[in-house]
Amino acid sequence: AVALQPMASLAKLGEPVAEAESADPTKFHPTEPMIPEEPPEKQECKRLMISALEAAGIPYRFGGWEYGGLGSWDLWPGGAVECANTCEYNAECYHWDFDCSELLCKHYGNSGFEEDGDAQFGRDFWFLGDSSRVSKQPKPEKGSGKTLRI
């Protein structure tokens, strides 16, 4: 028998940390995703994290972030939801990724670049997201740049 932890006991994006920490883990809505306390295999972790992130309303994509690291932590059973929330509460954090292969959360500052979710490199098991500090600037229209004439 695998012990399960209801998502209600984990911090959700936008909730104060104190409220999330004091949540009663015995009270939860039956449709909330259940997270096993025992570390899962990466395929099961991926399935659980998709469900948990969607239930929490946290945007994500598959891939990783390179450079600008602020630190990394083993993060189970909190997973990708807790990784996103702890990034949101850290004023220096702009990007986060959670690796289901290692059950590892990483936070990044406002530098570096995004790597795609290429399965060849195992990044199809990495969840990547941004804090609310990341501005979503519109991309310039094609042909709006200056042309160099020689």
Q: Can you offer a commentary on this structure?
A:
The protein has 150 residues and is of the alpha+beta class. The protein has helices at residues 17-21, 42-56, 79-89, and strands at 4-6, 34-36, 61-66, 69-74, 95-99, 104-108, 113-116, 126-130. Strands 4-6-5-8-3-7 form a six-stranded antiparallel beta sheet, covered by helices on one side. Strands 1-2 form a two-stranded antiparallel sheet. The longest helix is centred in the N-terminal third of the chain and has 15 residues, at 42-56. The chain is globular. The chain starts with a strand and ends in a 20-residue tail after the last strand. The relative contact order is 0.18.
Blueprint of the fold:
Elements: E1 4-6, H1 17-21, E2 34-36, H2 42-56, E3 61-66, E4 69-74, H3 79-89, E5 95-99, E6 104-108, E7 113-116, E8 126-130
Antiparallel strand pairs: 1-2, 3-7, 3-8, 4-6, 5-6, 5-8
Q: What's this entry about, in short?
A:
The chain is α+β, with helices and mostly antiparallel strands.
